[in-house]
Automatic annotation (TrEMBL):
It is found in: Endoplasmic reticulum; Secreted. SUPFAM superfamilies: Thioredoxin-like. Residues 1-20 form the signal peptide. This is Anterior gradient protein 2 homolog. GO terms for cellular component: endoplasmic reticulum; extracellular region. Gene3D superfamilies: Glutaredoxin.
Length: 166
């Protein structure tokens, strides 16, 4: 009798604890990573300072992606970047990468304003590459989903300039 009572109590506790957990509609809980959905397989710097350190010590340019979670322009750019295997491979092999949902204290990273999404390059000498920008004159570092070819060209420019400057 005691065994049956304990078994029923154990089942009741297990069932009640299952009701307290949130389960997304997909049925799976995706852990939050530093990638924030921009490429979970990539190694991301945690902070701007860490990105600068890795850039200098590994002699690779730093790519900083500024974005917001609830911005439709950021979401659209994230979608095309994560689906482009060539960009994902370049980010993995040739760059130190960081994505930020907040502004840094370095004013060089917002020379023409604080807008999202924007992508900036910093070389290992810790120089913000103001000369590598997107196609807009009023938002120099903004990219849209249609700008992937330009982004790839700019990634190549960041690598070439890196090799010729150091």
């Amino acid at each position: 009798m005691i065994k049956a009572l304990l078994s029923a109590l154990l089942v009741l506790v297990a069932v009640s604890s299952a009701f307290g957990k949130y389960i997304p509609k997909s049925g799976k809980r995706i852990p939050q990573t530093l990638s924030r959905g921009w490429g979970d397989q990539l190694v991301w710097a945690q902070t701007y300072e860490e990105g600068l350190y890795w850039s200098r010590s590994r002699n690779k340019p730093l790519v900083i992606i500024f974005h917001l979670a609830d911005c439709p322009h950021s979401a659209a750019l994230k979608k095309v970047i994560t689906e482009d295997n060539d960009i994902q491979k370049r980010l993995d092999e040739d760059f130190i990468i960081l994505n930020l949902m907040y502004e840094t204290t370095d004013k060089h990273l917002s020379p023409d304003g604080q807008y999202v999404p924007r992508i900036m390059f910093v070389d290992p000498s810790m120089t913000v590459r103001a000369d590598i920008n997107g196609r807009y004159r009023n938002r120099l570092y903004a990219y849209e989903p249609a700008d992937l070819t330009l982004l790839k060209t700019n990634m190549d420019a960041a690598k070439k300039l890196l090799k010729s400057e150091l």
